[in-house]
Sequence to fold (295 residues):
Amino acid sequence: MVTFIAVLVALASFTAVQAPQAGAAPPRLDTSSWDKYEAPFRLAGPIYYVGTQELAAFLVSSPQGHILIDGGIPGAAAVIEKSIRDLGFKPEDIRILLTTQAHFDHVGTHAHFKKLSGATVQAMIGDDKLLRDGGKSDYLFGGAPENAFPRVAVDRVLKDGDIVTIGGARITARHTPGHTPGSTTYEMTVNEGGRDYKVVFAASTTVNPGTRLVTNPSYPTILEDFQKTFRVLESLQPDIFVSGHASFFNLKAKRAKMNPESPAAAFVDPEGYRALLAEKKKAFEALVAKEESSR
Fold:
């Protein structure tokens, strides 16, 4: 199930993002399963799962080249390459690299795939700086070298509502800040068996330990950004939702009941989306209340 999603915010909100603050305590993460091979498969229409057992990555295919959404940790490059080739595609044919968030566990292979394919890196305003400096300016992880990733040039800076296209694929980028200043949700419609499905690639709404929302906030507009994010999320009505972590959208269970000839049906889960959104919003509001009570 998903921890991720959306909000439109003014450009001015991100020009004031601060450098990592002294005393921040970024979480130490268990990444042991993050580079483990997961057999790739078609998820819906032209969308293919090419991620690892835990870190999701998605190839959106077209005859004119492909879009890769998210890319795992730096050490997962060979695994993702294998998955793409196992499906009969060539990673050299990737033309666009996107991400839901500029953290090391989602953009760690961007530099690798850009070098391999010559793809353009397209990133939302607020995360473009993080990609260019390898995460050093991240408000939480910037002081943790183990969470850095290879720097990569950004060819197009996206704004809320921008459209990313290649071949027949048309993806709308939604500015979804909070988890990172440029966290992004992508929306597209795909056809499977004569039916259209609305698909959301959801950006994270998780508030990582060490993040400050109210008192001495991690960046000036972080509280408002998360609040707007939940409002936008509540306005979305996906048939299928996925995210950067496989466990967040229950990949294992959904895949177990999937018909490979018509896979989309197993991933239709609007009720799960609503339930998870309510759960994440409740957790966020509890953190805000806790900070406010200690002021």
Notes: The domain at 37-293 is CATH 3.60.15.10 (Metallo-beta-lactamase; Chain A). Residues 160 and 175 are 5 Å apart (CA to CA).
